[in-house]
Each structure stands twice: as C-alpha cells, then as structure tokens.
Amino acid sequence: MAKEIPQAIIAEEELLSNLKTSSAGISSSEAAKRLKDLPKERNIPGRAVLNVLARQLKSPFVLLLFFATVVSFVLGERTDAIVIFAIIIVNSVIGFIEEYHSHRILEKLQKYIPNLVTVRREGKELKINSDHIAEGDIVILEAGDMVPADIRLLKTEDFSVDESVLTGESIPVSKNAKLATGQASDSSLPENCVFAGTRVTAGEGEGVIFAIGKKTMLGSIGSQAQSIQNKSIFEQNIAAFSRFLMIIVLVAMAAIFFISLMIKGGSANVVTLLLFVLALALGILPEALPVVTTITLSHGAMRLARRSVVVRRLSAIEDLGNIDVLCTDKTGTITENVLKVKDVYPAGNRNPILKLSLLGQEEDTQAGFKSSNPFDVAIENSMLKEVVVRAEHASHLQAIPFDPARRIGSHVVKQGGEILLISRGAPEDILKQCSRFEHDGEIAALTEKDHQDIIKIVNTWGSQGFRSLAIAKKDIEQKSKYSADDEEGLTFAGIIAFEDQLKKSATHALTLAKKLGVEIKILTGDHPNVARAVANQVGLISADEDIITSQEFGRLSDEELTKKLSSSHVFARVTPDDKLRIIQLLEKQGRKVAYMGDGINDVPSLAQAHVAIAVPSATSAAKEISDIVLLKKDLQVVVDGIHEGRKIFANITKYLKYSLGGNLGNFISLAAISLFSPLLPMLPTQILLGNFVSDFPLLAIGWDTVDMQYLKKPQNYHLSVIRNRAIVFALISSIFDVLFFGLFRHVPIDTLRTLWFVESMLTEILLLFSIRSDKAIFSKPRPALILTVLSFAGAAIAIGLPFISFGAVFHFVAPSSQMLLLVIVISLAYLIVNEIGKIFMGWSESSRLSK
C-alpha cells in the first residue's frame, strides 16, 4: 500500500505533543470540541435526499417515461406530454418518500447496535460510540475489536491485526509499538500503526488516534468496510428477474411497432403508434417492484426490531427467510446462560477450589469480586461473603486468553511472595496438562485411576445436563511474558459442576422452526453428554442419538462427514475450524445456512454463512461482518425473524405474480387488437394511468396476511414458475378481453376505451385477491384491512373517473349504467374462471414444493 505515514516515524513524545494529548488521553469536552470543528462528512441529510432522488430518476421505468414525454412534446402532443410527465412526478415522489423513509428506518436501526470503543480520557477508561472518538484519543484494543480510526500504537502485547480490507492479504500481521525507521512499502503497512476498517485478531494494544473519518487510509481511498460485501441472494434474484423482463419488453416493443407499420402502411400514425408501444412496454414492467420491495422490507425491519432483531441491510430479511439450516450454540440461545454451582469434586476441597477459581479472575482481591463471567458470578453467588472477600492480597500480572482450540485459559497472579499460574477449562484438556493432583491439602502424582475417576464424574454430570469447569495451578517463576507453553506440569485442583436452566421459549422455538422447515444444528464447545442432555430435554434429539465431537472430525473425510450432517443435529467440543467446515459442507449440499456467532474466532464462519447473525455480546468484528444483530440472545427471536422473512418473500412474490399475470394479459390483448383495428383500443395516457391506479393498492402488500403453506419451506424466485403462471393468467385475461371487445365493438371509440379501462382495472384488482393464496378467494387467511381499503379505493377511482370532468383529460366519457353493469358482470365472471383455473392447473406453491 503505497502511502506515507509520517506518524509512524515520529517519536512518541513528539506525536502526542503534535496531537495535543498525553498517555492519559484528552477530556470528553476537548473531544467534543475537536469533533465539532471537523467538516461534516457523515450522515448529511441533504446528501441522502439527493442520492435517493437520483436513484428514483435513474430507474429504467422513469427514463422510458421521460423519453415518451419528450417525444410527445416535440411532435405536438402537448396534453399527452403533460399527463405523462405528471405520472412521472407522482410515481417518483411516492418512490422517493418510501425509499427515504426506509433509509431513515435503517439509520435508526443502526443506533441499536453501536460500535463501542474503549478509550482513556483524563486517565479513566470509558466505552463510547465509535462516532464520538476524536484525534488525540487514547484507544485500547483487544482481540475481536474493529479498529475505529488510524492509530499509532504506543503499547502492544502479542498484538496482531487482519489488514485484508486494505492489503488483500488474509494472513494476520503482527504489530508492535517500535518506532518505524522508514515509510511503508508498496506491499506492507507500518508495524507500529493500525488502520480503520481492520480488525484485531489477537492480543492487546494501546495507541493514539491520528486520523478519523475521511482522513483515514480507508476513507482516503473512497471505501467503507461494510461496502465490501457480495450481493445477497435476494438482490441477485431480483437483478436476474429484472434483466429477464427488460429483454422481453425491448423485443416486444420492436416487434409490435414494425409489424403495425407493415400491416397499416401509410395509414399508421407513427407518433401515436410509438407512444402506444412505449405505454404497452411500460404496462408490462413491474415498475412498482422497487417501491413495493422497499416498503415491505423496511416495515418488516421495524417489526423485527420490536422483536429484538436488528438488520444491517434490508435485503438480509428476505435472505433470513430463505435459510433451511440454523447453526447455533446452545448457551444463551437454548439455555439461559445463568449458571448455578451444583457440585464440586473433590467435595472436601469445595472452598479452596472455588477461591482458587476466582483468584485468577480479578486484578485486586481486596477490591471485591467484579467479574461478569457467568462462571465467576455463579461461584461468587455460591460462596459465603467472608470467603469471597479475602484478606490476602493478590495482584493480577497477565492473562493467557482462552483459546477455543486448546480449550484452556489462564491467569498469572502474585500472591504474597509467590507467582501462581491458574488455569481453567475443559476437564479432559486440563487433565492433559496435569501431572499432580491436590486432594485434602495433599499433593500427589496424578494416577490413571484419578484420571478415570475424574472423567467418570464429568460424564455423570454431563448426562444430567451440568457443565463442568476444571481448575489447575502451579507455582511459576516471574518473567516478563507468559504463554500457553507455561500451561504444563500443572497440579489438578478440582472441577466445578454448573447447572444452566433451559430457556422457557426454547421448546416453542424449536417447534416453530420445524414447522418452517428449518433444521437446527447445535455447535457447542461443551462436553458431548451436556450437549446431548440439553438437546434431548428440548426435543431436538433422542436420548441415544450420536453426538459428533471434534475428535471425530479429524478422522472423517468430507464425504463421510457430509453423510453424517444429514442425520446429526448436535456437534460437541467443536473448534472454530470445525464450525467453518460444517457450514462449508452444508452449503456444498445446496443448503442455505445461517450461523450465530459472537467471538473473533467466529468471524470466518460468519463470513461463510449465507446469513451471519451476531448475538448481543459479540465482538465489534463479529457484528461488523454480520447481516443481523440480535438485541437478545434467544433462539425464539431468530426463528421469529425467519418467519418474518418468509412472509416478506411471499408478499413480494404476490406482487410479481399479480403484476405479470394482469399486465401480460392486457399487453397481449391490446397488442393483438391494435394490429388489426384502425384505431388504438386504448390511448397511451390511459394505459399509463391504468398501470398507476392498479399498482396503488400494492403499496400495502407488505401488511398482507400470508397462508401458512408459503411459510413451511424456504422459497426462491423460480422464473419458470412465475412465467408459467403469468402466461395462464394472461390467457384467461385475454379471453375475457376478446369477449369484451366482441360485446362492445360497435360503441363509439371513446366509450369503448373508457369501458376497457374500467374492465382492466377491475379485473387486475380482483386478480390481486385471487393470487393471494392457492385456496378459494374467500378462504382464510383474510386479506389485510389496509389492502382491502386501498383496493376498493382503486376500483372506485376506475369507475368514478369517467363521470367527473377531470376524466376528460384522459379522453374518458361517461358510459351508461347498463354498460357499466355489464363490465362488472364480465369482471366477476373473470374472477370465477380465474379461481377455477388456479385450482385446476395445480399451481399452488405447496404442490410445487412437494415434488
């Protein structure tokens, strides 16, 4: 990365002086002042307005209408030009309002998931929103954090960073606080600096911010971390569908125009014919799709937010509805993660074991116990106050972080004149590092019988659903740095059993997931017996079902594991690499996988999954890469999100079926009759108006109720299915159009056009109610009230417009009551035939999915 970083080669004292700060940090008032003095570059309302407006005006639908307006105006059809332009304005204003409203909704949702940064201000460590950091702030970083700004490092401890967002290099880079001797090369960045958008993969670091916002390296190259994402499944399907329709429209436009010229020869009015062809093309396009999609997704996002599910991009809702496998931990999702000490082994060592476990978790034992770790909270709650508040002094020297691969974490403390290393973790992994066993104050060699007895106790507790935590220790010499290599030759102190109650919502969530066709797979680091007991209690598996462990993963080939994935639901003692492998193999089977994660080690699995879900306690890196962030760690809220995604998909699909089915029928009828009739059966402005009015009720499609048959399994946009439905619906519509034309062929042309406009509007609105479900139109679920009201309003406009003076602008005339009644009868007959055809042709989604 060829970019000079002068801050990398300036001495620490000089840099702090230049930034007018110190190792104690700036004050909050000074930070606010510095932020106020910065040029406003983020979240500018005016810029957002212009961006949304530009998107509306650049849509193919609007561009085609603009072309029709210009052609009409230049060739003297001023009234048509004004009408078409008015339709552009109204349609664009509605689209703009809804898209901007959705933009604001998404902004509000992001406030639920602030990216917190630890800073030191005036000597005190605070957690603040990353939007509130300023140049000169001292930032403390640890594994799992996203780097919020460009930072010169002042202190590091085993510190490494993933800089792939800037360099493309996926291997984490080691960082230190040493003064750089030169500038960055083309292939590397200074080792004493970290940059916005990168993420900390290991260790701890401390540094001073020297650039934020657009001044950062990421900002200067015009990029944002969140923009480096592939298109979602939803976006890919919509893009493919739009391309498919555009090709059809362009070919149809050219064909109708030239065939009409060939048939009619010199009698053809080229200007009117061109506008007519444009109007026909616009009539078949589902131009309201962006608005309908935006409204449906944004209001779905708000409904999910009220259920503690926050989306980071709107299309993630529909993607969530498409999943058929959910990989999750059990702790906090199926269980409460509120632990209670149930037993200790050896029983005679209860208080020493509990005290030892707490001793390694706090910096000053005289300050009282402060940990938020659920294991530590449970231990504290189980002990007497006089035991928790100890008189002896112990200073915390260093932590050796818990590693999911080795399943051990350690702390080094100084107690009196001794240095003690205290390790905690999975019993079988702790035992591997132990050579001695302390029992009743006596220390002896750890025998094979001791080992078997301990494992037997762990297995017994596991079968009861209890989680086990093993504790070991050893005296160690003082040195500048400790590592996992020091976790050997330990003295086994004992194990603690913890009970973790099931969530009350767990069983219901699993039942609903089964109804939705979503397979739940538990990926946990817990003991196999614990995982089996919990999964059995909630009805996910039987008591004797096999549990696949990490040890088996190494022995199984991809083909063997793939076979087991189909029948296995619980995976225990899994490592981050195991989780990633499971997701990859599931996706190779064509499954759509959602993964719930929280730590830095979960980032690869989150990135691999179709839908990445971060839990409330997730690191900033995990949240940054996720599509969805939960405000409450509960399986129920995720399943509710899947349910909502399915509903949204179903309602958007209703629009596609309706738009193509109704519009294609009118397109075929109008195109065919225009080829043989000396006068156009409908004027271009009448076609455009009808298209606008018939789309009006669809603004409420997102609120419509959905038949359960559409929620049972994930759905996808199958162009062939939608195309076939559209063709049959169109043929039924065309048959009735021919019947209509036969009945009214002798009436004056303006009356014919008026009646055809009314008939087209009524049949399209009735079609909307018909395609809502594959059941009979009056069956449950009933349509949403707002959809019904807007549909009746659209029908009232269609019937009433010819009877008011404004209708003359569109060349409508008032028909007789007998003619109007006949049109209504034809429309109702169309509905009956359409209902029969719907059932007879067997186009129900449920029958398609059962094949």
Short description:
The chain has 851 residues and is an alpha/beta fold. It is 48% helix and 17% strand. 45% of the residues are buried.
Give an account of the 3D structure.
- Strands 8-23-22-21-9-18-20-19 form an 8-stranded mixed beta sheet, with helices on both faces. Strands 10, 11, 12, 13, 14, 15, 16 and 17 form an 8-stranded mixed beta sheet that branches. Strands 1, 2, 3, 4, 5, 6 and 7 form a 7-stranded antiparallel beta sheet that branches.
- A hairpin with a 2-residue loop joins β14 and β15 (442-445).
- The protein has 851 residues and is α/β, with parallel strands linked by helices.
- Residues 41-45, 222-230, 362-369, 388-392 and 843-851 have low confidence and may be disordered.
- It has 30 helices and 23 strands.
